[in-house]
Design brief:
- With 202 residues, this protein is of the alpha+beta class.
- The strands form three sheets. The protein has a five-stranded antiparallel β-sheet, with helices on one face. It has a four-stranded antiparallel β-sheet with strand order 1-6-3-4, with no helix packed on it. A three-stranded antiparallel β-sheet has the order 5-2-7.
- It starts with a strand and ends with a helix.
- Its cofactor is Mg(2+).
């Protein structure tokens, strides 16, 4: 059953209490969403038609909806800015020609990571270059990209797009500064409490 349809006017925001839904753009499935995930915020924040179709993919599902007027009263300030940032990361129309190299921010055996900026929007991203092996994308890199495309979570780096040349694959992702969670945990003098562990694992 359809919950929302691409192109229609949006009037509600949805949270998944139970079950799963599929998100489709132009008839192509782009991701699945499960319990505690949300959708429908873009049309309300930017006052534009729905950009995707969402339909229930599990046998049963329970969805909570919030009308636009209530949504606008609740979602403001930092919460609104974070949602808008996450939405901009979903712009898969970004191409290599849209990006300007700023500097190298990481390098290793697998490849190089560069800080890049969108020429028009000034949005900053991380662009990782990975060398192909025998002309093919390494299996572990392909699995990582496929998994990230399925996930939309504030604690997990968002993938924006991938680009290929004959020798390399370029992975455009959300720019996350401040180090890794693993490094931060190692600086804590004791183990994480149950509450903190539950928070970080979602």
């Amino acid at each position: 059953a359809h919950v929302i349809k691409q192109g229609e006017v949006g009037s509600s925001f949805f949270v998944i209490a139970n079950g799963e839904v599929s998100v489709m753009i132009d008839g192509k499935m782009v991701r699945n969403l499960g319990k505690n995930a949300y959708f429908g915020e873009r049309a309300l924040l930017f006052d534009e038609p729905r950009t995707a179709t969402v339909e229930v993919s599990s046998n049963e599902a329970e969805l909570w909806s919030i009308e636009k007027s209530t949504f606008s009263q609740i979602v403001k300030g930092n919460m609104q800015q974070e949602l808008m940032h996450r939405i901009r990361l979903q712009d898969t129309s970004v191409t290599m020609k849209d990006l300007r190299h700023i500097k190298i921010i990481g390098a290793g055996a697998a490849g190089v990571v560069r800080l890049v900026r969108h020429k028009k929007t000034s949005m900053r991203y991380a662009l990782k270059r990975v060398h192909k092996q025998g002309g093919k994308i390494p299996d572990e890199v392909k699995r990582e990209c496929d998994l990230l495309k399925e996930i939309d979570h504030p604690f997990i780096m968002a993938i924006v797009n991938t680009f290929e040349t004959s020798k390399s694959v370029y992975i455009l992702t959300e720019l996350i500064t401040g180090g890794e969670l693993h490094g931060a945990i190692r600086q804590i003098p004791t183990v994480l409490s149950r509450a903190h562990a539950q928070f970080y694992t979602g």
